[in-house]
Amino acid sequence: MGMGEIILVIIVAIMIWGPGKIPEMARTAGKFVNTLKHTSANLTAQITKELEEAEQGKRDHSPNPVVNPVPQPPAPLPPTTPASGSSVAEANPSPNTPVLSPPAAPKSENSGED
User: How wide is the angle at C-alpha 69 spanned by C-alphas 62 and 56, nearest 5°?
Assistant: First the structure.
């Protein structure tokens, strides 16, 4: 806003409200701006303080970093129980129990020769 525009605004304000009311309005506007500055500064300080406390809390609760973690062995599996109506030997065959393979397909008489 240039100097000419400011003078024009002052002249219009004097014409509308009169010369006695202008200082009172300027005082009120100054108090409002001052209150607004203080409120803004307090709000900024409060937010900054809360953020710093939150970051400090994160640092306090975070575990210390481990450089070379030692792998843990897997937990043992619980023992299996046999299905109802079957024996323990069927559920847990011994290592010496033979494994049955499916029957072989019958050989066809036609081996491809005609």
Answer: 10
Tokens describing residue 40:
């803004």
Say how far apart CA 38 and CA 32 lie, in whole Å. Answer: 10
pLDDT per residue as tens digits for the range 3-35: 899 889 888 888 888 888 888 888 999 999 999
Token couple for 110: 């036609």
In this structure, what is the dihedral angle of CA atoms 50, 55, 60, 65, given to the nearest 10 degrees? 170
Which pTM does this prediction carry? Answer: 0.40
Among residues 56, 58, 54, the alpha carbon closest in space to that of 46 is found at 54
DSSP 64-96: PPPSSPPPPPPPPPPPP-PPTT--HHHHS--TT
